[in-house]
Backbone:
């Protein structure tokens, strides 16, 4: 992550400001407000605003006049109840806004979550910075042999070296040509007076998908948790998972009771189908059950045994 | 509006609390925070939380690292530009939450705006208060003769008296029977030990549509302005317009530059169709144009002449 | 359900029409198209249009040029895979539209599902019919003693008789007064020439919440299944569950493979929290576990034992 | 646009199939169903399914039991009324689904319209085809000097030749390296047995933004019209406008009455702000008004005069 001095100054100026407010305020989140938390090689997330706290969830669930808080333990119990029974609307009453810098191919996965507000840096209007994502050596993985959308072993040796060369050189060359086609010099004058310069909205098409972009992204707590349950999952692509994991830290600081319930009832939870539930009851009754007599496919059987920590 | 002493105490306790925050803060909105603003005979709106300000709109439009503010006049200019060209996403970066008490028939109109978060007081879980909307005499209007969904002259004399009697007596009787069927006494015991009491989720069906309900309602600034442009309009039913007008006051306090642009480009604006635009050009060229040669229907012609302040 | 002769004629006229189409067509759903299926005492649902079938789910998942169908068994396997792994977007590619007649208090629960399109009969513009929901004797339930939003035993004897009297008389009186205040006679003339008649948008507030309304409601298959998983659930209020169950029949006719996967992975499935999963592993390892050593609350423990079909 | 023989065969097989349906059917849209309409150099749109027609808009607005159609002229009048007064929900009752092939940088603009359903071809799971967008010579435009997000004159001569060389060579080289890093040979074996091959989800990051992708995109008529009003506009980037214009043809075939109203009240309409309306009234009253005394900025004044076809 390379913030310019000017950017650091702007961030610190915001952090230095304080105002008095009657709103619900969370000191632990205030502490990290505006700070850029590094993700991948040049990316970051930073919380730029928030609204509400654990108490706001309780307040909305009770449609109360005051703060909604009785005792901390009672509130946590209600939050656990809401999470367990999928009463999702009270969690929609909290809102958070992030500034995120991320590679374009990650942005394309991210944007599939539609219930959020987004303002992206416009490459139609402005010029993108010269920054590309190059995986760290330990994340340069081969295609998985068993899962068409998964990764296998880490590449090493000459193959890894060649891949790094390709990624770096192609991104650099494409960016160099992007700037050349734009032909923009200092102060608005053309760099080369003999050329007009290609329109920004066209020149950008020459960039590679690992070029970094950035956006403001705002969503409510319920939709954020849904996003995180999918993107912090082991099946998510590593690059977006890295962002999800950084965001989990901010959620824990922001709404600790909700976060704890989320870990128990979502992140760490498992859903059994009707057929699996039937197998489970037979197992608990002491019956010996194998895949063949289970009614489950081999894949489902294997998944279930893994979850239960048993040999198939 | 009749807040109980307990409710007033809860509200004042919230207003008394202050915390330091690094977030964007709007003193004018802080001043009205939590306070119930009366609407209709027993309803209210009150702002219970907010996120962002005019600067947050600018910040998102520029995807900037700092506050996004240059000079106040420059920011206002950008906000006017965004509003005029319907660049709506920067306005989605501000969020506001209201606690609203409103008659059920108004709630049913309101909920048609789907891009918002809602937590309503549950009559399945709790017992509704004994409060019904009865129009003020000056709002007890006859059916319009020309507009099937509009109002005509105000009812007066004996007809008005009869209507008031009906509205009051039917609402009161239905509520009385609601409580009777519930049969709930003090401390959870039945009021009449000889009866079980009807389930709350069923008993509520006996209430009339002017019974008050309440909810927490949260939305972003763009969707709020869309709601207000429709519901503060002269064609909206008076009862929901009363809420929209109270909310406009909070918007003006919250985001004054956005509010000014909204008044100019939305509330006070008029859209001319292609056919109307053609008429307009002919009029400006000094041509005499009547409805018949205009290509407009009689209704459209009348609407256009009214907007232009001309005799048809 | 009382359709007028005119309504029956309109429905049969639509059913009689046939056209040739190149679109995916489902004979089993065509067979029930437009027919009103009774729900509660005067309500109904009827499918008025649909788009797509099981094959459209497969087609979208594969982004294929043709029909997307290989073998029926292979398609069903893919649909099961998508359902199990919560790949929800392919199910959004099918759409269905219902015409529904339902009591207003049910409509108010229903509308909380926001990702749908709705056009409701306007009581601001038109006059509602004289139809109210009165529960069947076997659904006239007492308040549950253990669950604040549940039902207990069925009311009987004199208490039931009194409740039925109240519900019938209050609804009838309110409706009678509604018509009287409207004062609309035949052909647009006032019924009583001495009165102006109250505006429709106001008169409606005198109606009780069990008055029937109707709407066109359209949604995609994914959001429909989400609606049904919540509203066909045993914890849903009986009155909305009755609608959900009638809709399940249309889903089974429309997309049989999706319906089967939905029954297995949603309707019949159970989610265990991280803490429950830990208990499960201990039980399967032969350990004796009681509530106290389980880390679960009494309520969670009871819920888990019930799901597993065990004595606590 | 280069469809393979296999794709053409699949499309023709779908077109050859016919089934009888009771649903609303539009012969003019059936005629173009499934056919790929070329857009840009390798892209296309094709309608793959639809639901409803002009009559369905009328039917929903009236919440009628039958077809909703009285006379064609009466229906068209109602549709014009709904469009003029922005009663948008009846237009949500029609749905259409497109299969679109488009460059990634266009897909990124398109996806900002969130109220739609999307299934995109997955480059995490599959390998993208070797197809890139290269502008036609007449669309290779310079940056606009006056509008930061617009285009100026067309590039010509040596500058154009250089740009074409860069675009073609960089896209080709990046794609070549993409395939090389993947190292996938025939039948699943590696192309070069000495290398493992980079994971697909990583290799794709080396592609340029003009690479073509494809998706199934489904939306309702109201949101489609909103999309088209923004993307068929003269201010939209040419490349997405080309798609919008091809889609307008399908809308005209599908819902001709709605399309006509849309052209009059949206595409050809102009909105005047409160300040502009005040100027208009003065002009119509014969007053001489210049920019300085108008209360409008120079830019607004110029825009207004252009719309009115007057010299400023």
Residues:
């Amino acid at each position: 992550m390379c913030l310019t001095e000017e950017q650091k100054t702007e961030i610190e100026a915001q952090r230095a400001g304080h105002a008095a407010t009657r709103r619900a305020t969370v000191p632990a989140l205030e502490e990290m407000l505006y700070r850029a938390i590094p993700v991948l090689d040049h990316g970051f997330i930073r919380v730029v605003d928030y609204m509400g706290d654990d108490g706001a969830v309780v307040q909305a669930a009770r449609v109360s006049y005051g703060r909604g808080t009785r005792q901390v333990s009672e509130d946590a119990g209600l939050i656990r109840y809401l999470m367990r029974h999928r009463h999702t609307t009270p969690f929609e009453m909290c809102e958070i806004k992030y500034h995120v810098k991320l590679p374009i191919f990650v942005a394309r996965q991210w944007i599939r979550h539609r219930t959020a507000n987004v303002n992206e840096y416009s490459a139609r209007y402005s010029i993108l910075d010269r920054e590309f994502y190059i995986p760290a050596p330990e994340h340069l993985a081969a295609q998985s042999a068993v899962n068409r959308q998964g990764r296998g072993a880490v590449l090493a040796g000459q193959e890894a070296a060649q891949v790094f060369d390709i990624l770096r050189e192609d991104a650099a060359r494409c960016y160099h040509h992007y700037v050349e086609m734009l032909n923009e010099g200092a102060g608005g004058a053309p760099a080369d007076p003999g050329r007009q310069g290609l329109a920004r909205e066209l020149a950008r098409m020459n960039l590679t998908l690992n070029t970094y972009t950035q956006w403001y992204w705002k969503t409510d707590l319920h939709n954020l948790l849904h996003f995180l349950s999918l993107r912090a999952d082991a099946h998510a692509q590593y690059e977006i998972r890295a962002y999800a994991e950084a965001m989990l830290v901010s959620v824990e600081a922001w709404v600790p009771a909700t976060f704890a319930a989320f870990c128990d009832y979502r992140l760490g939870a498992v859903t059994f189908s009707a057929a699996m539930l039937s197998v489970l009851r037979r197992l608990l009754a002491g019956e010996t059950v194998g895949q063949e007599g289970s009614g489950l496919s081999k894949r489902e059987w294997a998944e279930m045994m893994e979850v239960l920590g048993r040999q198939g």
